[in-house]
Structure formats: structure tokens, C-alpha cells
Amino acid sequence: MGIKKAGVLGATGSVGQRFILLLAEHPDFEIHALGASSRSAGKAYEQAVTWKQTDLLPEVAKKITVSECKPEGAFAECDIVFSGLDADYAGEIEKDFVNAGLAVVSNAKNYRRSPDVPLVVPIVNPEHLSVIEKKISDAKTAGEKKPGFIICISNCSTAGLVAPLKPLVDAYGPIDLLTTTTLQAISGAGFSPGVSGIDVLDNIVPYISGEEEKMEWETKKILGNFNKEGSEFVPLSDDEMKVSAQCNRVAVSDGHTECISLRFANRPAPSVEQVKQTLRDYVCEATKLGCHSSPKQTIHVLEEADRPQPRLDRNRDAGYGVSVGRIREDPVLDFKMVVLSHNTIIGAAGSGILIAEILKAKNII
Amino acid sequence: MGIKKAGVLGATGSVGQRFILLLAEHPDFEIHALGASSRSAGKAYEQAVTWKQTDLLPEVAKKITVSECKPEGAFAECDIVFSGLDADYAGEIEKDFVNAGLAVVSNAKNYRRSPDVPLVVPIVNPEHLSVIEKKISDAKTAGEKKPGFIICISNCSTAGLVAPLKPLVDAYGPIDLLTTTTLQAISGAGFSPGVSGIDVLDNIVPYISGEEEKMEWETKKILGNFNKEGSEFVPLSDDEMKVSAQCNRVAVSDGHTECISLRFANRPAPSVEQVKQTLRDYVCEATKLGCHSSPKQTIHVLEEADRPQPRLDRNRDAGYGVSVGRIREDPVLDFKMVVLSHNTIIGAAGSGILIAEILKAKNII
Amino acid sequence: MGIKKAGVLGATGSVGQRFILLLAEHPDFEIHALGASSRSAGKAYEQAVTWKQTDLLPEVAKKITVSECKPEGAFAECDIVFSGLDADYAGEIEKDFVNAGLAVVSNAKNYRRSPDVPLVVPIVNPEHLSVIEKKISDAKTAGEKKPGFIICISNCSTAGLVAPLKPLVDAYGPIDLLTTTTLQAISGAGFSPGVSGIDVLDNIVPYISGEEEKMEWETKKILGNFNKEGSEFVPLSDDEMKVSAQCNRVAVSDGHTECISLRFANRPAPSVEQVKQTLRDYVCEATKLGCHSSPKQTIHVLEEADRPQPRLDRNRDAGYGVSVGRIREDPVLDFKMVVLSHNTIIGAAGSGILIAEILKAKNII
Amino acid sequence: MGIKKAGVLGATGSVGQRFILLLAEHPDFEIHALGASSRSAGKAYEQAVTWKQTDLLPEVAKKITVSECKPEGAFAECDIVFSGLDADYAGEIEKDFVNAGLAVVSNAKNYRRSPDVPLVVPIVNPEHLSVIEKKISDAKTAGEKKPGFIICISNCSTAGLVAPLKPLVDAYGPIDLLTTTTLQAISGAGFSPGVSGIDVLDNIVPYISGEEEKMEWETKKILGNFNKEGSEFVPLSDDEMKVSAQCNRVAVSDGHTECISLRFANRPAPSVEQVKQTLRDYVCEATKLGCHSSPKQTIHVLEEADRPQPRLDRNRDAGYGVSVGRIREDPVLDFKMVVLSHNTIIGAAGSGILIAEILKAKNII
């Protein structure tokens, strides 16, 4: 057990900086390797980074010498590697790390659709990690050394969406129709250059490249099934679930708001009060496992007419809890509601950390 | 014919100020009476008002002495009276004006549901004015003097919503399912106090009191039918059309963005290209009548992936045109698209002016 | 010693809510009385308040029954009473509390100019509390019971301004010319209604009623002197120090930015490096006394060209530290620099709490 | 006379787009050549540009084939060339154009400090164009062909600053001390990427690279003198005028607000009322010449306590007028006031157009 050695790929970027913040005072992990481009490699981290977080650059990270993103040297000794790499680089580098036998938790989109890669929102579907457990146990049985693996963090807007869906599906059966219109924060777009100021000042951009497709597809994998062998994922089919997303960028720093609407396949549908109670009662597995970052309350059901609001509610349970409000009947589908989640915590780096906590709790790392 | 005398009720308020701006250089109307609370009555308008428009207070309005909101004095001589009154006052005052034989176009919500009051978006359903024409002609037949009447402007978010629906229903038959999630500007809420700064800075408020009910109901009246006699309106039933609205307040000054999704009752549904062409081809009646403020292009179909945007597109055709973008198939209903309309022009005062232009063109006033 | 009983006047308002948040987990104080208008009195606090903080309403405050703002009942037992009252009510009520022998720390402006009332920024001039100590000791000598007293928190923008001035004056003698142009956050204006959204969206309001006069005057009291007896304050004269403030309201939630420029009376002026070092070395008395909320680093001297920035730097030392950047020579006066302070912490409620901590550390309460 | 042929360098950029908008319906000019990078050259303008203006791309520009930025082909026939080039390219290209005998009005900073290049704010110092007139007349005398020349548009924040200074200096003699703290809009920074959204959302950036130096220096050239021969400019010395600027980037789309303070060299200083009257009475030369874009009222003196505000006042006289408010005595210098100017009109492209109108009116082109 003890403290696990953690590496961060893409350490100078927006997601990498957040991994470092979350790791800096973490009881389970210590920062052991920081990887960035060859331009940064060799420098002390504090020299290499343009730090743009509201929390100060942690002392513990300042003097670490930045490495190149290769599965050697400091990274070779890591129990877990968090990847905040851009998709342009993640594909190649993460593959190298897995091939070198390393455990990678990635925020990049590259391997999310791979049939044997778990796409995990840690407060929703940690049971998908069983595919990794099986892979490790199969290798052991075969007398091979422990294999490397990759686990993908979902898209930020998907994380908020599926959080309330999971307990509802568990309680009332499949959701066959689902619509979501998002009002997404700008922090998710990073900061070099990120979203242009002129695009979000007195404005809305009703489009985020690739986002709608990601939400529509990822939801079906996260709420989906395994193959018979338990070695691959079988997303829900369009017949089982139709998902429609409309994504907007708005002038909010952190916190994705989603106006969702859903229909259950089974009749009669539950009552509004049943839906609320099911959400209130939901305790995610990470919380049951006692994971350090797991939310006390997984889903906060708000009763005030005008909540959740990003500025007021995004930091519930340090950003690991999801807020759901305005749960009411929908004239078109069954129910509509407003879901708020912290896009850089449960929607990105924070999910990565919580996944690693679960991996440790389950002795996978 | 000639120039019509216009009065404005609630002249010092947000909507009243916009009526005045639009009337000041209007070729069809002259400002003849300005009404406000007894606190303002007797003062020159420039003394009574806290002017908060980006255009300067028109010279022509500055010296007009503000009256009380009574159907006497200057108002008695008006051919048309525009009401920007708060709902708290509009009910009583507007009734008095109608009873005094005056023609009232109101932005208040009080009489929108009255069966014999037209609820008109002038680029959508000016044919609803026939109820007024019938009322006048009936009075004439009966040897009575010309009756007063009231016409209601729709809610701001309803106006944008129904604009593209009308030509689609005309072309492809009824829409039976409709969802809209709005991202609404703050100017619609007036400015004393209006929306609080702290509520829209780095924030979304996912609730606007009464707004969803208004949108769901008004849409069915505007797209609805007449009774046999042509004297009353018969809104669509829930069986004919289900509408679901989710309303959000966002940090935009002017321009309501709506992410809508719809299903036609008839199969097969038209193609995306047909939908676009129908919207492009639509010419509203006001434009055919040559009304001064009518849009050259009623509906602007935008092909860029990230449009319409409020800051860039809200002023098309001086705010009388509606922009529609991202028209595409919807996995849940038939089509989804983004609709942008100027909430204080086509969504409020501007619609009032254009209604009056139609009334004049049809010799109703 | 032990835990002191604290009361909060104006408990449902913006400043009152922040007092409650800061008191809820404070080791030195417990919330004993909450006062609000007669409309709220008698209700449980959670019923009476519209809570609008980003932190949740503390459990410890929820069930407290709100009292009227009278120096009786629960308030009579308080060791310290924090006032977040509006100026309209503060004058009368605070006087009653003092007359009843209570210790009041007030955020209202009413008594700031009273010659015997300390106007205290706790990281700047806690020595002004000696006037209270003298008052108490005089009463004791005279055999009278311990008198009530009031201490005023400075205006929010004054607090940030004087923080760097104090150590500079101590080190290099009087500052005779001082200009400040402020870019002030909206949270200071409260929220009912507070600053209107339309006023700060894509806009600046270059005026805050009464603010410039307050800054110009308060600075001279805070940096000023005592009379011979040590019983009253003698602000600096215009001959000793001229202060010019220009105040702007901007679209920032928390954190006042000030661009200041100053000239020392003595020649030669210190060097830029001396100024920086003096600010870095400054340790406020509250920190020396070990007060719970006192900043580890009173003044943070930032070297990055584009700092301090409100979003990134306002929370240094939980809002009790002040950030100063861009210290450089000024072509007109001696030096210019940018000062950032948290307007609701060191600029309001937080200062009140820290003043009370100092009072306790000095056995004044 | 007649209509002059105009070229635009950097035509796809932010400034270039505004030149095109202003030229499209201009009675004095027609767009004859559009220059951009070799990547764009050869394409129709509507294909080459990512249009991001609130007004639609003018029909007249859509089909123009974009050229490379060389003083040949279409550009060789231009009577006037407007340059919106980035400073990285402007130096070389503009020199080539001048050497080819072309008249260039540039928004780039490269030649602003050249002693023989006029730095012109057209509502302030068009008399500086005499240096060009002399150059042309000298060439004529020498029997040489008409020489090319360049005129520089000032920095956007300088333009607003000097507008009220000029009439005051003319009336009351030199200003020897001047401070300005700016709150600058983001449109000036262009849009690829321009100012990052995360930098201006709930934030201020108290720094704009190079801006303060530009303001401090340009002011002294614009208000400065000529050498004896009238062939070169002699900026004011530090002894004659000290200028101190502090520049901030804020969440405003268009419109720079400046809080300025100034002292006259002569005693006694004028009264506040005299200052106001002088500003009100100022009629710039362009207006006297009847130039198409010249403001009806050069300087708008606002009496409301809380004005000017960018959203409400930036469009006075189509952005060619400057608004000045809060004129009052300053405890440190003589007067303080708030100046608002439209940074992309009088502060950039608009000034270029108005300079060209003056050139035409004076038969320089």
C-alpha cells in the first residue's frame, strides 16, 4: 500500500496544472514525474510553467525537473500516470506508456472509444474497471508480467450528464430518450489561447467542436454493457437509447450547466418525488470505499426554484458532487431537470484522481 | 392616412423608452402623448426619465409633458397607444383605454390569454388581427361607434421561437412535439432593478419566473386556430402539440438564443435542406405589405457551424429579422436548430411598432 | 478567556451573511444572537435569510431564532456584536447598543468620522484601539462600569489602499501626495438589488456614490494621529497629505484593484527595491499577536508583469493578505503600483472579525 | 477630385475588416485593392476572411480578389492605402509602399516615432500633416515626382487621452503634469487569439504590453512642436510635460475609459466651468472642413454623475466623438475627469479614414 508514485503528462497545460494541485496535498500520492514538451524538459517546473490557477503553485512541485513524455527515467517508477496531454500527442505517447507496462489515467479523447478501454466517471461506473482487473488476472494466469493499461476520463459535459442517470436507470430501468442542452464554462477549453474573450463577452457561442458527438456516444458507453467475456464494452444501441445534445459556450469560468430531459422505457414512469428520492439516496461506490476525494453527498438535489447556479453551487463536495435542481415533469418526455457539475473537477482532472483512488482501493495499482 | 398620433403608456420604463426611440423618427407615427406614474406626470419627459438607452433621448420627446395614464387629454386624441406598463398596472389601465374606444398595443401579459385578444408576433401571425377587423365591422353593422381594442405582443422568448415554426407548419403540417432551452438576455428584465449583476457575472440563472409557462402556452395560441365565427382564438390542444421550455438567464445584453428541437406530426418528415429552403423563402406579410419596419429577410438561415451568436447576429434587419442556424437532424425528435431573436425589438417594443404599421396598412387604425 | 459570544446585526444582509460564515467555524467566537428587521424576527435564521454565498449556510446558524436589533435578550449577553446594518438603520441601533454597554464592530459608515471612534483596518492601524483601552481604563479608574464602545471598519476600497502605505510611511516618512483609481468589484454593493447586471455587462460605471470622499477622508484618519490625551483622533491635514480618488465599478465579483501613485514628503525618495523590500518585510501586529485570521504574509509583492489580478490573487491568505504588483517609478509622483484586496474580507466582514480577534488578544473583550 | 481608390493592407485582420466596413459605403473612397498574406492571396475576399464584425461583410468587398501586400498591381493604382498590418510585417511592407510613391495611413506602431512621420489623431492635430505638404511641395520645387509618404494613426488609448487636452492647451497653455489610468476594451487586441476569455471574466488584467510607454511618448509628440524648417516633429520634453499612464484590460467589448488628472503650467488655473465650456466649444478642423466622418460635436461634455459609460456613450457621432464626464477639481493636480473614446473608431480604423478625408480635403491626395 503506502503512498503511490504519480506522474503527470502534459504537466504545464491547463489540465496538468490541476492534476498537480490535486496531487500536491494528497494523502495517497506523491508527485514523482512531470512530463512536458522537449522545450520545457530539463527545466525546474516553476520555470517551465505559466501558472494560471487561483491556488498558488504548490511548493512540492516547484523544483521538480520536467522530463520529456517518455516511459523512462522518473516515469518508469510511477505507480500511476495522469495524462493531461492534448489529443494531438496523447495517442502515441499514451500507447508507449501502456506498452511499457504503466498505468495511465487519461483526460484525452483518443482511446475513449476503444472497446477494451474503460471510460469512467468515478462517481458513476467504477464497475467498468473490472475489464482492467480481468486483463491483469488473465496475464497473471498466463504467467505474464502485469500489463500496462489505460483508463479514460469522460468528456467534461458527459460526466455531469450521466451522474443523475445512473441511479435512475438502476432504480427504474432504461432511459430510452435523452436530450441535453449545455451551457458550458470556458475553463474546459484551456488557456493558450482557450476561448477568446470577444466570443464570450455579451455573447453565446452555440457550438463546441465535436462536443455533441462525444456526449451522445460516451453516454451510451458509460451506461452500456460488457461482452460475455467481460473483456470489452458494448455501448447501448440507438434502439436502446437515443441521445441528443446541443452544446453552448457561455461566460462562466467553471461549472457546466445542463438542461436535460429524459424518458424511461418502462411504464409507468416514477413520480417526481421518487426521482428526487432516488437521487438523494445515491451513494457512489467511491464513497463506500472511503476514497479520499469521494463526495459525502454524490448528488445534491436542490429545491430552490432558481438553482443550481454555477457560481453558487459548483464547489459542492470540492467539485466532486453534482447538483440537480428543478426536477419536474416534462410535457414532451417524462422529466426535465437542471444538472450542474464542476467541469475541471468531476469533469476532468478531479475524476482522474478519484479513479486512481479507486484503483488503489481495489489494489489494481 | 397621413401620420398617426401615438401615445406611450409606461413611458419612463425600459419598454416605454424603446417605444419612444422607435417612434421618434418613424414616418407613420408621431409621439403625441406620454404616460407615466403620477410622480412623473406634469414634468417634461427629459426631467421625468432616467434614460438608459445607447441611443440618445430623441429631441422630439424631451419637452413633451408627461401625463397620467388616463384615457383623456392627449391620450384621447391618439390613433394608437403603445403600452409598456408593468403587469401590476396594465390590467386596469389598458381596460380603461379600450373602454374609451382607444386602440392599444400592449407588451404586458395581462390580456394575452383573453379569447378575443389577438396575441401577435407581427412576422408570424398578423392574420390574427382579423378578429379585430370583425369586431369593428360588427360594430359598424350594428350602427355602433368604432370600438376600442387591445392587441398583445407576445412574450420575448415566444417571438423568437414561433418565427421559424410558422413557415414550417405552413409547408409540412403540424409540429406535434417541440422543446426549447433558452439562453435569455438581461435587457428584457428592465433596469430598476432588472437582473442583478452578481446573478449573471460568471453565472447562469436557470430560471425565469413564469417564463416557461408563457412560452408553452403562447406558442399554442399563436400557432392555433379561430372559432367558427372568427371572433375568438382556439389554441392548439396538448394532443395537437406538446411544448416544453427550459429558460435560463445569461450574461448577454440583448438577444435571446434558443436551442430548439421539433417533430412533425406527418411522415415522412422533410429533409434538412427542405427545412432550410422553406425558412429562407419565407416572406412575412408585413414585408409584403411594405411596412416600414418589416425585415427584408424574415428568417436568416446561417450556414456557419458556430452561428447565430447574439453579439454578431442580433441586429439583422434592425432586430426585426430572426436568425436560425445549425439546422440538423435530431436523434430524439426530427430536427434541432438554434434560433436567435432580438428580445427588445421583435420580442417587445419593435413588435408593437410593426403591429401598428400593419394596423395602419390594413386601415384598422 | 474562552470562547466569546458573538452577535450579528443585519444578519440576513450581504455583510451579515459573511460575518456568519466567518464566525461559524471560528475557534474564538460562537454565534449567540442574530438580529434583523422585525419582519424576520422570530423566524429561524434559515427561514429568514435568502442565502447567496458560495459556501453553504452553516448548520450552526440555521436554527438560531432571529431577534430584533435591540440590546436586550440574546444580544445583552454578547461579548462582541458585529454590525452589517445599512447606514439608514445603523446610526440609531448601534448607539443603543453602545449605550447598553456593548462592544460593537461596525461595517456601517455612520460613526467613522466620530473623533473618539477608531476607524481600523486591522492589518494597518490596530494601535488606534488604544483609544478604547483608555476609555475603559478611565471608566475603571472612575469606578464606573465597563463602557460600551464602537469600532468602525473602514470602507472596502480604503482598506486595500492603506495596507501598503502604512509600512512605507513607517519606513520613509510621510506620503504627501497620493492618487488612486479604483476598479471595484460588485459584491461590495450587496445584492438587493446591488449593482444592476446591465450596468456591468460590457460596461464600466465610473462613479460610486460617496466612495471617493470616503477614501480621501478615511485615509487621513487611518494614517493620522491622536490628540495629546490619546482620547481622540486627529486626521492628517490637507497640508500634510493630499489624496485624490477616482472610483469605478467593474464586472468583477470579488476583489478591488487600485492603480495608485504616491510621493514621499522626504527627499531623496527610497528606491523601487527598497519599497518592495519594506512591503515584503511588513508583519502586521495581528500576525505578531497570533490572531487566528491574521495573514501569514501581510503584503504579497508580485513580480510578474501582469499581476495582481482579482480572479487569481484575491484569496491570498484567505482574503486577509493584500497583493501589490507592478511597483515602479512614476513620471509624475514617485512611485506607481497596483494594489489588490478582497473587498468582503479585508475590506468588510473579515476585517471586523480580525478586529475582534485583536480585541480578545488584548483583553479588551 | 472624385472618388479616390483605396487599398487595405492586412485586410483579413481585425483592423483591416473595420477599414473595409468604413470604406464600403463611403462617398469619397472605393475599395480597389485588398492585401493579405500569401496564404490568402488569389482568393475572393469572402473566402479568405473569417468575418467577425457585427455588421455583415459588405457586398462590395466579397468578390474582390485578395492580393499579396506588394506595391504593384491593384495597389499601384491606389490613391490611398490603409494599413492594418501587424507590427511584425508593417515595417518592411509599408516602407516598400512609400518608396513606390504611395500614400499610406497606418495603424501599426512601427513609424510612429520617426521624426518626419506625422502621428495624427484627426480630431486633434491635423496640422501635423503640414510636414507631408512641405515634403510634396519640396519635391515639386526640385522637379521630382510626388513622393510617397506615411501617416501614423496613434495608439487607441492615446487618441482618447489627447482629444480633450488639445483645446485645453490651446486655451490655457501647457499642461505640465498628466496622469491617466485606463480601463481598456478587448476589441483593440484583435481576435486571433486576442484577449483570452478567462483573463477578462470576473477579472482585470492590470497590464498591456508596451501600452503605457506608447501613451506617455505619443502624447508628447501629438501635443508637441515642429523644427524650424517644419520638416520634423519635436516632441515635448519631460521638463515641459510629464505623463504617467497605468493601463488595464477590462471586460468591455468596445470603448476605452480613462480616468485622467492634469495640471496646467500657468497659474491661476481655469475654473471647472471654463474647462467644460472650452471642451464644449471645441470644433475640430475636420468638422470645419466638412469631412464626411467628422463628428458634429467633437467633445461631448456629460453632466450626469455616472457618465460616460462605454455601453451607453461609445457610439456618439458614430464613434468619432469623444465623451468627457465628471470634470471636477483634483486635490493633487488641478482637474480630474473621465474620458471615453471608441477604440476601434477614433482609436484606430476610423481615425485612418478621417485622416484620409482630411488629406483629400486638403488636396494632398
TrEMBL record, chains A, B, C, D:
Name under which the protein is recorded: Aspartate-semialdehyde dehydrogenase
Swiss-Prot/TrEMBL catalytic activity: L-aspartate 4-semialdehyde + phosphate + NADP(+) = 4-phospho-L-aspartate + NADPH + H(+)
UniProt keyword tRNA processing, yes or no: no
InterPro entries xref list: ASADH-related (IPR051823), Asp-semialdehyde_DH_CS (IPR000319), Asp_semi-ald_DH_pep-lack (IPR005676), NAD(P)-bd_dom_sf (IPR036291), Semialdehyde_DH_NAD-bd (IPR000534), Semialdhyde_DH_dimer_dom (IPR012280)
This protein's UniProt keywords: Amino-acid biosynthesis, Methionine biosynthesis, NADP, Oxidoreductase, Threonine biosynthesis
Top-level enzyme category: oxidoreductase
EC number(s) per entry: 1.2.1.11
Function: Catalyzes the NADPH-dependent formation of L-aspartate 4-semialdehyde (L-ASA) by the reductive dephosphorylation of 4-phospho-L-aspartate. Mediates the second step in the biosynthesis of amino acids that derive from aspartate (the aspartate family of amino acids), including methioinine and threonine, the latter of which is a precursor to isoleucine.
PANTHER family noted in UniProt: ASPARTATE-SEMIALDEHYDE DEHYDROGENASE (PTHR46718)
Domain Semialdehyde dehydrogenase NAD-binding: 5-132
Assigned protein family: Belongs to the aspartate-semialdehyde dehydrogenase family.
Superkingdom field: Eukaryota
Pathway note: Amino-acid biosynthesis; L-methionine biosynthesis via de novo pathway; L-homoserine from L-aspartate: step 2/3; Amino-acid biosynthesis; L-threonine biosynthesis; L-threonine from L-aspartate: step 2/5
